[in-house]
Design goal:
By secondary structure, the protein is of the alpha+beta class. Helix content is about 15%, strand content about 35%. Strands 1, 2, 3, 4, 5, 6, 7, 8, 9, 10, 11, 12, 13 and 14 form a 14-stranded mixed β-sheet that branches. The chain has a 5-stranded antiparallel β-sheet with strand order 18-17-16-19-20. Strands 15-21 form a two-stranded antiparallel ribbon. A hairpin with a 5-residue loop joins strand 2 and strand 3. It is elongated.
Length: about 450
């Protein structure tokens, strides 16, 4: 990177970061590479704030933090990718604890952000209100782009988990792709993220008697996502929900763009209603990764191979094969995921899948049949991609239970399917089982809104 003292005009020169750190309480100009951005949040006052981390040739390893304050989230920096370049004018250097950082004051500071890729245009994709560009900036931007080629911020994948490795209560880092962001209630946003892997199955702690009154939900959020949104999601790998509902702060998560790979730091995980949920904390941070980030490309490559293989749509944790407590009449049909089924382009279709049965209504085998003797049940099925309700009715129920066995036999079959411990003292751990599903609709005026699923050609072995 070239010497950043550009000419004799004190109002028009950049300091290197190492020199700026010695300029306490002075207003300085900086140009540097962005490596990390904190989650934008509402400050204790009326401002919105965020922190970004920047580096340059003089301080390539540790860099410094820049604290921004603005009247709204929209006026904060909207960094598109780690490795982009930010130009800062008249920021104040401050001591903070044992370190030094820069403070952006909305009254007199300004900024501009440029793409970090060599060969990109010298036009910033975001500027603050007081910023004034100069052609003289271009050679310094070009110098940083050239320096970044050999000093590109690396994805810290070694200290990050994949979704298949998450554990409840564990604070960790996660690299994933943001698929969708929505507000689920006032001030609480939910992110839907994905990395191509399957979250581990969880034990279910609720009592079966309690579930009769409060059955496990199909999703954590009160209102399910529309079919139009779901059809844009990958059909293999878990879509993890991530929320800020324990943060007690208003966060600018709506600034995260769908389709971007993100490196989240200092997040934790919980199980809610038997479903995994990521939890953003006040100290959580993130970096937006470039689309050609090595880790992101590797995840996409592995997922592409998995999608191509007709047998790899089974959950990771059921390999080499699911439990043998069920059998189907369609052994030659490849497996699909529940997300494949939900987003299937045809209303009426037949499928074979590997799932866990996490709930059954009615809640006791003695009630599985109507007074006329016809089976009528609703099962809640899950795999790493989704949960759905599936119905078992009439002759399909006869096939499933092998006729009309005694109540004692039915209870044993029921317990095996739901993973009930014989002592009833341990959480339930439903086994992976294979089954066949058929989709249909019950209202021709609302074809997709009235779609249902039923189990067929499947037998529960005694």
């Amino acid at each position: 990177m070239p010497n950043l003292k550009r000419d004799d005009d004190d109002d028009y020169k950049f300091l290197r970061i190492v020199d700026a750190m010695a300029s306490i309480n002075q207003k300085v100009n900086l140009i540097a590479v962005i490596t990390e951005i904190g989650i934008p949040k509402q400050s204790r006052g009326t401002d919105c704030c965020c922190t970004i981390k920047i580096v340059d040739e003089s301080n390539a390893s540790s860099g410094i933090s820049v604290n921004f304050f603005a009247a709204s989230f929209e006026k904060l920096p909207h960094v598109e990718s780690a490795g982009d370049i930010i130009q800062l004018v008249r920021v104040v250097m401050k001591c903070h604890g044992s370190g030094v950082n820069a403070v952006f004051d909305k009254k007199f500071s300004s900024f501009a952000i440029y793409e970090g890729r060599e060969g990109s245009k010298f036009v910033p994709y975001q500027v603050s209100a007081k910023f004034h560009a100069s052609d003289r900036d271009n050679k310094f931007i070009a110098g940083l782009r050239k320096w970044t080629l050999s000093n590109r911020p690396e994805t810290a994948s070694s200290d990050s988990l994949s979704l298949k490795e998450i554990k409840q209560g564990q604070q960790s880092n996660l690299i994933c792709k943001v698929l969708h962001v929505c507000e689920v209630k006032d001030g609480v946003l939910m992110l839907f993220v994905w990395d191509g892997t399957d979250v581990p199955p969880v034990n279910i702690h609720t009592k079966l008697d309690d579930e009769f009154e409060n059955p496990l939900p199909l999703q954590i959020e009160a209102t399910p996502l529309s079919r139009n949104i779901l059809c844009k999601f990958p059909t293999v790998g878990t879509i993890l929900r991530m929320t800020n509902d324990k943060c007690n702060e208003k966060l600018g998560l709506h600034l995260l763009k769908a389709g971007k790979w993100v490196h989240f730091r200092n997040i934790t995980f919980e199980v809610r209603s038997g479903l995994w949920c990521g939890i953003l904390l006040p100290k959580s941070k993130f970096s937006l990764l470039p689309d050609d980030d090595d880790y992101a490309l590797e995840r996409l490559r592995i997922n592409k191979e998995r999608v191509k293989c007709k047998w790899d749509r089974k959950p990771y944790t059921c390999f080499p094969w699911p439990s043998k407590i069920t059998d189907t009449d369609r052994q030659d049909v490849p497996f699909v995921t529940l997300m494949d089924i939900i987003t299937h382009p045809e209303v009426i279709a037949k499928f074979r899948c590997v799932v866990r049965v996490v709930a059954i209504v009615p809640g006791h085998p003695r009630d599985f049949k109507a007074p006329c003797g016809t089976y009528r049940l609703r099962l809640t099925l899950e795999d790493p991609t989704a949960r759905i309700h599936a119905y078992l009715y009439a002759e399909d129920g006869v096939k499933f239970f092998g006729g009309k066995p005694s109540i004692d036999t039915m209870i044993k079959m029921y317990n095996a399917l739901l993973g009930v411990d014989e002592t009833d003292k341990k959480p339930r751990n439903p086994p992976w089982v294979e089954c066949c599903l058929n989709s249909y609709n019950i209202d021709e005026s609302d074809v997709w809104g009235s779609i249902r699923y039923r189990i067929f050609d499947t037998t529960l072995l005694g």
